[in-house]
Amino acid sequence: MAQKPKVDPHVGRLGYLQALVTEFQETQSQDAKEQVLANLANFAYDPANYQYLRQLQVLDLFLDSLSEENETLVEFAIGGLCNLCADRANREYILQAGGVPLIVNCLSSPSEETVLSAVTALMGLGSPGGGSHPELTARPVVQCMLRFSLSASARLRNLAQIFLEDFCSPSQVAEARSWRADAALGIPLPRTEAPQQP
């Protein structure tokens, strides 16, 4: 287990967050990276930290971590981004930094928590009724949500249903339903669910 960063108690919140970022960047231990990223994701839940997290480029750290092979790092990174989507400046940054395709890729994770955070982050980046950012409700994403709406997991099924009802137009849902299930280009079927038979 990684040790807490050595921080002068008088440095305050920014200093502590800086120590976490530095530890993440310098450590060679995967366990320490996971623990630090989990801590940063938890700090991303508190709006008092948003300015510091932007200043320390933690949004980029989370976005970069979405491409890691380590599923635990991906899970904590998408959880952090999900927490940060509550803030307008963070949403705009994630959208402008090309975060949507990285988040969409998380929809195929074997980790249900990662998938739930990815769906929630997509919802946080959009606005009910859709239209503001078409990539959030592109046909492959809507097809993926349709598959999730049939999931055995009540959490995933309910979240996908909310996404479809609140963020997609009826015509987007109808169009996605009209395409074959395997035509969701760019989004592989999640490894935790068996593909549906045509």
From TrEMBL:
It comes from the Eukaryota. ARM repeats lie at residues 57-99. InterPro entries: ARM-like, ARM-type_fold, Armadillo, ARMC7. PROSITE patterns: ARM_REPEAT. Pfam families: Arm. This is Armadillo repeat-containing protein 7 isoform X2. The gene is ARMC7.
